[in-house]
Amino acid sequence: MRLLAAVISLLAATPALAQELGKPVRLESDGQPIDTEIGHATPALYDWDGDGKRDLLVGQFGGGRMKILRNVGTNQAPKFAALSWFEADGKVVTTPTG
């Protein structure tokens, strides 16, 4: 499922919220649409690397893996670099699934 489809589904399910938000946009990483590959996406924005710009962390149901996409743009006009898997101690971080 593409992340954009998840955002559109959320907005369609909450009409009052949709009126408060701007028009949805397709999120890209390194010029390509961000794809969660398997299952439901769980996106979160947070300044992960401490540079003052909110990065995108995306968890996915399939395998419980998480991707981090560093913001190389600005908070007002984010631009996400190529994805990397979220790692700790040299291993891809996973969360329980199922």
Please write out the topology.
Blueprint: H1 3-13, H2 15-20, E1 28-29, E2 32-33, E3 41-46, E4 55-60, E5 66-69, E6 84-85, E7 87-88, E8 91-92
Antiparallel strand pairs: 1-2, 3-4, 4-5, 5-6, 7-8
List descriptors.
single chain; 98 residues; alpha+beta; 4-stranded antiparallel beta sheet; two-stranded antiparallel ribbon; 2 helices; 8 strands; globular
Structural summary, described in words:
- The protein has two helices and eight strands, in the order H-H-E-E-E-E-E-E-E-E.
- The chain is an alpha+beta fold.
- The protein has a domain of 65 residues.
- The chain has a four-stranded antiparallel β-sheet with strand order 3-4-5-6, with no helix packed on it. It has a two-stranded antiparallel sheet with strand order 1-2. Strands 7-8 form a two-stranded antiparallel sheet.
- Strand 3 and strand 4 form a beta hairpin.
- The longest helix is centred in the first third of the chain and has 11 residues.
Brief write-up:
This protein is an alpha+beta fold and 98 residues long. Helices cover 17% and strands 27% of the residues.
Query: Counting H and I runs of at least 4 residues, what is the number of helices?
Result: 2
Shape estimate: globular
Helix content: 10-25%
Taking the sheet with the most strands, its summary is:
4 strands, antiparallel
Overall pLDDT level:
77
N-to-C order of helices and strands: HHEEEEEEEE
Rounded to an integer in angstroms, the radius of gyration calculated over CA atoms is 14 Å
Strand order in the sheet with the most strands: 3-4-5-6
Termini gap: 18 Å
Q: How many runs of DSSP E, i.e. beta strands?
A: 8
| Residue runs with pLDDT of under 50 for 5 or more positions | none
